Amino acid sequence: MSLTPELESRIQDIVDSAPTVLFMKGSPAAPQCGFSAQVVQVLNRLLPAYETFDVLSDGEVREGVKEFSDWPTIPQLYIGGEFMGGCNIVKEMYDNGELHDALGMERAELSADQVEITISAEAEQILRNAQQQQGAELHFGIDAKFQPFLGFGPAAGSELRVPVGGLFFLLDRDSAGRAQGASITVVDTEHGQRLDVDIPAARAGG
Amino acid sequence: MEIADQPTPRETAARIREAVAAALPDALIEVTGEGNHFSLRVESAAFGGKRTLARQRLVLRAIAHLMKGDAAPVHAIDRLETVVPAEAGVH
Predict the structure, then answer these.
(1) In whole angstroms, what separates CA A145 from the centre of its chain?
(2) pTM greater than 0.80 (yes/no)
(3) Which of A55, A74, A79, A89 best tests the B interface by mutation, with the highest count of B CBs <10 A?
(4) In tens digits, what is the pLDDT along chain B, a chain of 91 residues?
């Protein structure tokens, strides 16, 4: 399929529709491809809102944007109308601070011992058991909308390794700033127990 | 109806190597991968003075024909390391 002038101008309109535009498979809430999911994860740490275009909903744009950007794969990230790259490059730019620069953001320069997170004995036990079962590093973060997330997986290498109770949490640098003073407890709900994360920075409005 | 044989990962890796070598004749090329996902490490003087995006473009352009369409032998490049010979062996 060739890039017609009409399609080119349609794609240009999408690129120009917001300061940050991500061409991806699926939506941020339900990415349909691991690479798109990884870029969403990075952007969520930095931006409370950004524009996405689901290429699975539009076969013309799906093929056309590859030619438009001269880039063979999806996802593709545009900031300020400029093509940044795909998944590999976005993750690399996040780690070396270039993505913050492109977004005009300051990078939080914290060290692990500056981040204080408290955890109740009960919550610590639950996470310890889960971590033993998973046999992997524990990732904790608070995204730009102040939504906490918790997961298990290998370390990327750029995270802060923060002691929390007797455990270690891996935090990306942007989460670390928002996690300052956070406390993790177990609360009882009608559906059973769940972990609750109190985030002082969320109450302070950022 | 005849169904075309899917290339083995080994054959696809060889095609990737050939395609990159054609575009960057001086390059040292390592290709690893399974299924239709591959990782590349390419060392070439052609990357000198270029940013990551421009470096990766040189490589991806060379293999774009292997990534085109739903039945493409290469679905994704999981990792793509682009190194200038002077940078190699520094770490």
Answers:
(1) 11
(2) yes
(3) A89
(4) 445 567 888 899 999 999 999 999 999 999 999 888 899 999 999 999 998 899 999 999 999 999 887 778 898 888 899 999 976 665 4
**CA-to-CA distance for A166 and B88, rounded, in angstroms?**
40
Q: What pLDDT digit, counting tens, does each position of A111-123 carry?
A: 898 999 999 999 9
**Is residue B46 a part of any domain in this protein?**
yes
Residue B37 domain-assigned (yes or no): yes
Between A and B, how many CB-CB pairs are < 8 A?
29
Burial of A115 per CB tally in 10 Å (0-12, 13-18, 19+)? buried
Among A70, A85, A88, select the one facing B79 at the smallest CB separation: A88
Q: Are B77 and A70 an interchain contact pair (Cβ–Cβ within 8 Å)?
A: no
CB contact under 8 A, B56 and A70: no
Cβ-contact A36, A9 below 8 angstroms: no
Report the domain count for chain B: 1
Please give the average per-residue pLDDT across A87-105, as a whole number. Answer: 91
Per-residue pLDDT, averaged over A97-105, amounts to: 93
For the cut 60, the answer to whether the pLDDT of residue A135 exceeds it is yes
| 3-class SS of residue A187 | strand
- Asked whether residue B91 is domain-assigned, the answer is no
- The CATH number of residue B57's host domain is 3.30.300.90
Asked if the structure places residue B75 within a domain, the reply is: yes
Q: Rounded to the nearest 10 degrees, what angle do helices B52-63 and B9-23 cross at?
A: 120
Is the pLDDT assigned to residue A160 strictly greater than 90?
yes
Shortest CB distance from A89 goes to which of B52, B61, B67? B52
For residue B9, what are the domain limits? 3-85
Of A91, A99, A201, whose CA–CA distance to A141 is shortest? A201
